[in-house]
From TrEMBL:
Domain HTH hxlR-type: 1-70
Origin superkingdom: Bacteria
Keywords: DNA-binding, Transcription, Transcription regulation
One MF term in the entry's GO annotations: DNA binding
Protein name, per record: HTH hxlR-type domain-containing protein
Species for this entry: Holzapfeliella floricola DSM 23037 = JCM 16512
Keyword Lipoprotein: no
PANTHER family linked to this entry: HTH-TYPE TRANSCRIPTIONAL REGULATOR YODB, TRANSCRIPTIONAL REGULATOR, MARR FAMILY
PROSITE patterns listed in its UniProt record: HTH_HXLR (PS51118)
InterPro entries on file: HTH_HxlR (IPR002577), WH-like_DNA-bd_sf (IPR036388), WH_DNA-bd_sf (IPR036390)
């Protein structure tokens, strides 16, 4: 995904904070950052390590939705 696509999904997060979190996730090898040499477009994708976190994050998201109402 491109940064602007991520920023649209995570609307309650400033660009600065999102950038910091992406750098942190990249350093932990959860996210991969790639730059298209011709266009300079930066894209982010999950590494295998990040992909394996998806079920955990889905469960956390479901838990949050369930208990957010209280």
């Amino acid at each position: 995904m491109r940064f602007k696509d991520l920023a649209n999904i995570v609307q309650k997060c400033s660009d600065r904070v999102l950038t910091e979190r992406l750098k942190e996730l990249e350093s932990l090898k959860i996210v991969n950052r790639s730059v298209d040499e011709q266009s300079g477009v930066i894209r982010y994708s999950l590494t295998q390590k990040g992909d394996e976190l998806k079920p955990v994050m889905d469960q956390i998201h479901a838990w949050g939705k369930r208990w957010h109402e209280e």
